[in-house]
């Protein structure tokens, strides 16, 4: 097994009386694709937000490349960049695709605008959307908007290579897409993983079986605040674990409480 890149140790998080994460341990290893699955409302998005440093846990520790993170991402830089691709593409409707993808560079860097445009176009090429920089999000399909949000997650300041995301967090990237559009996104996720030096590790939350099978190497199953099962994709297919069997079959009968 490769070196741990991100480690959560004993992480708990409640919203009021709702204990969403209960003493969770989780590791993302260098170069791995980790799938996070589980029933709706079970804390998958919350765990991604904790990993990204956007939500503070109530208890527990987070290590990024062995360095303990204090506070949220805004309180101090992690040793490696972490990019998040949100469930909704979360683009600014009033900005063009180019302005969306280059948003952080335009706002916070001193890079000349022409250079930012080049960097944005490189990333748009990478996600297969050359030449759409002047369009607005409302003019794109759902799948295209997701691809634009991928480009935005991986664009970074070449003067600050440490900010380039070494790990990407995908929250339901194929939700709401037809099977073919889903395949395009799944292929893209794998391609981005294999692009030299970019995003070699990722965690992906998904409900879609095809996405689990095609984008994850290892899977964890989250339920009632805890990691209830983990294993490889092959093991996921074969396991007799009652939670996994019920989840994959979609049955309403079994140990998963149907609320
Ligand atoms: N900011 C918040 N304030 C209050 N409750 C929250 C907040 N964020 C999440 N929750 C609650 O925490 C629980 C877990 O939410 P989360 O979005 O992490 O689940 P999920 O597994 O990603 O769900 P889904 O599969 O439906 O997207 C839910 O009951 C949700 O209502």
From TrEMBL:
Q: Which branch of life, at top level? A: Bacteria
| Entries under SMART domains matching the protein | AAA (SM00382)
Among SUPFAM superfamilies, the record links this protein to: P-loop containing nucleoside triphosphate hydrolases (SSF52540)
Q: Does the keyword Transcription regulation apply?
A: no
Question: ABC transporter domain location, by residue?
Answer: 6-249
Provide the protein name: ATP-binding cassette domain-containing protein
Alphabetically sorted, this entry's keywords are:
ATP-binding, Nucleotide-binding, Transport
Q: Which GO-annotated molecular functions does the record name?
A: ATP binding; ATP hydrolysis activity
Write down the CDD domains for this protein, in alphabetical order. Answer: ABC_Org_Solvent_Resistant
Q: Name one Pfam family in it.
A: ABC_tran
InterPro entries recorded: AAA+_ATPase (IPR003593), ABC_transporter-like_ATP-bd (IPR003439), ABC_transporter-like_CS (IPR017871), P-loop_NTPase (IPR027417)
Calcium recorded as keyword: no
């Amino acid at each position: 097994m490769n070196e741990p890149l991100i480690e959560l140790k004993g992480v708990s998080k409640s919203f009021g009386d709702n204990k969403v994460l209960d003493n969770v341990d989780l590791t993302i290893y260098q170069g791995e694709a980790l799938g996070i699955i589980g029933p709706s409302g079970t804390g998958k998005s919350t765990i991604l937000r904790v990993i990204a440093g956007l939500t503070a846990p109530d208890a527990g520790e987070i290590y990024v490349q062995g360095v303990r993170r204090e506070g949220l991402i805004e309180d101090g830089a992690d040793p490696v960049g972490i990019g998040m691709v949100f469930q909704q593409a979360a683009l600014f409707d009033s900005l063009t695709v180019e302005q969306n993808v280059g948003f952080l560079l335009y706002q916070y860097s001193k890079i000349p605008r022409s250079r930012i445009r080049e960097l944005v176009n490189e990333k748009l090429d990478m996600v297969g959307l050359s030449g759409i920089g002047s369009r607005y999000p409302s003019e794109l399909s759902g799948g295209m908007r997701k691809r634009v949000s991928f480009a935005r997650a991986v664009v970074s300041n070449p003067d600050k290579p440490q900010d380039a995301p070494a790990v990407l967090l995908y929250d339901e990237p194929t939700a709401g897409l037809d099977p073919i559009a889903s395949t395009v996104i799944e292929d893209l996720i794998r391609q981005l993983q294999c692009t030299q030096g970019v995003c070699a590790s990722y965690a992906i939350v998904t409900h879609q079986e095809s996405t689990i099978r095609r984008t994850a190497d290892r899977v964890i199953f989250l339920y009632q605040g805890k990691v209830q099962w983990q294993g490889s994709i092959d093991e996921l297919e074969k396991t007799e674990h009652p939670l996994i069997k019920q989840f994959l079959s979609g049955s309403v009968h079994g140990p998963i409480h149907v609320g």
